[in-house]
Amino acid sequence: MSDPLLSRDLRFADPTWLSKDPAALAWILDVVDELPEWDDHVAALLDFAFRMRLARLLRTHAGDGEFRKLNRTIRRVAHPIREKKLNALDVPYAVRWQVLVDLLEDRLAVMNREIPELVRSRRWVREILERIRHGQEVSQRDLLRSLPEEVEEANLSRILTLMEGWELVIRHRRKKEKFVSLGPRANELLEAYALPDLPSRAELEAKVTGLESEVAGLKRKIARLEKANIGELLRINPPLDSKRCYYEVPSDEESPRVRIPTRQESIPEAPGHSR
User: Based on the domain organization, do 108 and 122 belong to the same domain?
Assistant: First the structure.
């Protein structure tokens, strides 16, 4: 089979290649402007490719980049300059593809919206995500067993439905067993749960006010102590004689009394000189 990229004729493109190959969307945009005329066959080929791609993206919970790429391609193909020709075919493809564009843009809006606090703080959401993370994938039956007995099967099903709506988990079935795995947005919550709980602004302001009160109280206490003990910290005894005096500084009972010599005692006399 020849390489589809070498062909420039959309009429002979392989429908499977158009709907699956990553390079096909860029190729469609490259050749669609060269179409001499639109007909039902070409429009049906593109319609099949667009719908198959959208179904796969929804089924696999693809990232927003793939949704954006498909949305951009459909919008370019269904440009208003072609709207009249496309709607004149057996199926009004311009209207049909606008529905796909609306669906894609709604999907992107949800994907880019912050997960609400109602979901973040819902009981058991954190525990469910952490249990799935450790095993990558877990059966819904084993998940139920790992949770406290108060979580009943119907309650777990409701919580998983809520989480799946925000792409926190993906549910699928193999034979008769239901399995749950992490969704593309699960890490947003797992990373948030790993962060320490920060105090609120009101809590911080209350703590600052308390510290300020403690500091003010300590300052008042220090001031009272200084005022009460200033005379005891340093006492001046009357001079014993006219030439000699010293300061007595209170000391522990086990330590000798500290004696500070006067200025006259501190200055040695010159040789041969007597007072």
Answer: no
pLDDT attached to residue 196: 59
Measure the CA–CA gap between 187 and 192, rounded to whole angstroms: 8
- Give the whole-angstrom CA distance, residue 22 versus residue 212: 64
In a domain, 275, yes or no: no
Residue 178 covered by a domain: yes
Find the domain containing 72 and state its range. 4-112
Identity of residue 223: A
3-state secondary structure of 198: coil
Per-residue pLDDT tens for 256-267?
554 555 555 545
Residues lower than pLDDT 70 in the chain: 1-7, 135, 195-200, 228-275
Q: What is the Cα–Cα distance from 246 to 25, expressed in whole angstroms?
A: 101
Distance, in Å, from the CA atom of 53 to the CA atom of 73, rounded to the nearest integer, reads 12
Q: Verify that 106 and 53 share a domain, yes or no.
A: yes
How confident is the model at residue 247, as a pLDDT?
47
Our count of domains for the chain comes to 3
Does residue 108 belong to any structural domain of this protein?
Answer: yes
Counting beta carbons within 10 angstroms of the beta carbon of residue 78, is it exposed (0 to 12), middle (13 to 18) or buried (19 or more)?
buried
